[in-house]
């Protein structure tokens, strides 16, 4: 946690000097919860309080427990919605499984159509005649 106090405004809790934090709360108050670092930067005091191993452990374990609870709830929801989700999952599986086969078949059909267009002889305009009975 990083907090910044502006000395021109009187600082935190009316403190106006860089040593006011340790004077008001004592050096031990900050170190009991972690390390206390102060730095003077252009009229501001920056205080960083580090976390202890116990706090870091509690944060990590609460995250792990939250993940376990989330997975449990997700599995319960999936079990309840199985009848609705199962057809969609099968459709997704079949679409993804058959996509390469359909792409290959489509390429073969297109190549056969292109080849048949190149092999087809051009039509003579003189040989075409109007519909009707053939002359004798």
Q: Could you say which structural class the secondary elements and strand pairing correspond to? A: alpha+beta
Helix content range of the residues, please? 55-70%
How much of the residues is beta strand, in percent? Answer: 5-15%
Got a strand count?
Answer: 3
The stretches of 5 or more residues where confidence is low (pLDDT under 50) are 9-15, 28-34
Please write out the topology.
Blueprint: E1 2-6, H1 20-25, H2 27-33, E2 36-41, E3 44-49, H3 53-80, H4 82-119
Antiparallel strand pairs: 1-3, 2-3
List keywords for this structure.
136 residues, alpha+beta, 3-stranded antiparallel sheet, 4 helices, elongated
Please describe what this structure looks like.
By secondary structure, the chain is an alpha+beta fold. Helices cover 58% and strands 12% of the residues. The chain is built from four helices and three strands. It has helices spanning 20-25, 27-33, 53-80, 82-119; strands spanning 2-6, 36-41, 44-49. The chain has a three-stranded antiparallel sheet with strand order 1-3-2. A hairpin with a 2-residue loop joins strand 2 (36-41) and strand 3 (44-49). It is elongated, with a radius of gyration of 39 Å. It starts with a strand and ends in a 17-residue tail after the last helix. The model is unreliable at 9-15 and 28-34 (pLDDT under 50).
């Amino acid at each position: 946690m990083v907090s910044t106090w502006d000395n021109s405004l009187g600082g935190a809790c009316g403190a106006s000097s860089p040593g006011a934090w340790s004077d008001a709360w004592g050096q031990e108050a900050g170190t009991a919860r972690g390390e206390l670092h102060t730095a003077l930067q252009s009229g501001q005091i920056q205080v960083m309080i580090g976390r202890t191993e116990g706090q870091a452990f509690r944060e990590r374990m609460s995250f792990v427990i939250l993940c376990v609870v989330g997975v449990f709830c997700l599995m319960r929801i999936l079990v309840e919605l199985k009848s609705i989700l199962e057809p969609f999952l099968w459709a997704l599986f079949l679409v993804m499984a058959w996509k390469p086969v359909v792409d290959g078949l489509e390429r073969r059909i297109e190549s056969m159509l292109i080849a048949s267009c190149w092999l087809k002889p051009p039509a003579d305009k003189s040989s075409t005649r109007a519909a009707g009975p053939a002359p004798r």
